Amino acid sequence: MNGPAGAAAPAGRGAAGGDLDWDRAVELIHEAAEICLACHVAPDGDALGSMLALGRALRALGKRCLASFGEPFGVPAILRFLPGQEILVEPARMPDAPELMISLDAAGQARLGSLAGAAGRAGALIVVDHHASNTGFGGVRLVDPDAAATAVLVEELIRRLGVPLDRDMAQGLYAGLASDTGSFRYPCTTPEVHDLAGRLLTAGVRPDAVSRELWDRAPFGYLQVLAGALGRARLERDAAGGRGLVWTTIARADRDARGVHYDQLEGVIDQLRRTDEAEVAVVCKENDRGEWYVSTRSKGSVDVGRACVALGGGGHRTAAAFTMGGEPACIIDRLRAALRVPGEPDD
Question: What pTM was computed for the model?
Fold first, then answer.
């Protein structure tokens, strides 16, 4: 990569200990006339919510602002309620070499998909992220693996920019915070997380409305797809160091038969992770390109992030994912091996 956008993080300031160059980020934003925002492909609530909230704050500062994500370009159905989507453009309409680009919730430049090249050619690239698996890309980094969500960092950035939170900004940030804390159920939920949630509610967010959009609505066909996925679920008590693995698959044909879109399958893993006998839950979902997106969840004692990084993906200790071609059974074989506790003998 060329230019400041491709500069590696300074030695000793990797993601493991946090990398927060707030002053330089604020300076670059105030100096720029146009700012391009990009989040990771197939955005979730944290990626899209954080990006739209930041976009609204930048426009409040009088900045020209465009936002996008790599193909396939289309806002997931469960996130279409988020305000601020008028700044979204197809990735082909983004500048080839932006004056300033801000990457949100992407652990590596490759996660920007077709916008990775523009990120590398940007005059400056600010990376805002909370993944422990962050690769260290970008010239200016706001990376903190201890943050519960990228939304936490974006809220701090907006505050440092001197922009008061309005209801639309708060809505996007709350969607991000609620998504990445599992509706405040995951271990990353701290007193500080609840403090932030309280500030967002004070700004006008209705938590019941956000929760309904994210978790409490689905087409009838989803229930039929879910029933099939649960019927195929397999429990392996001896996997994951004897802590147990439960997994299932959802092929493209399964959802096509019921008229269910790929992006409506996010909640399936939350049903599997309820299994008492399994520490790790996994759902293999076939996308429209015939690849398998493998979502993993851990209750805490197994590091699924480490396993997913080994298989080309990324994420956190308790929630991570990777994409792979091939047959699901073979993919699970590879994941099972990656989940072995260090020092555990091979089967």
Answer: 0.88
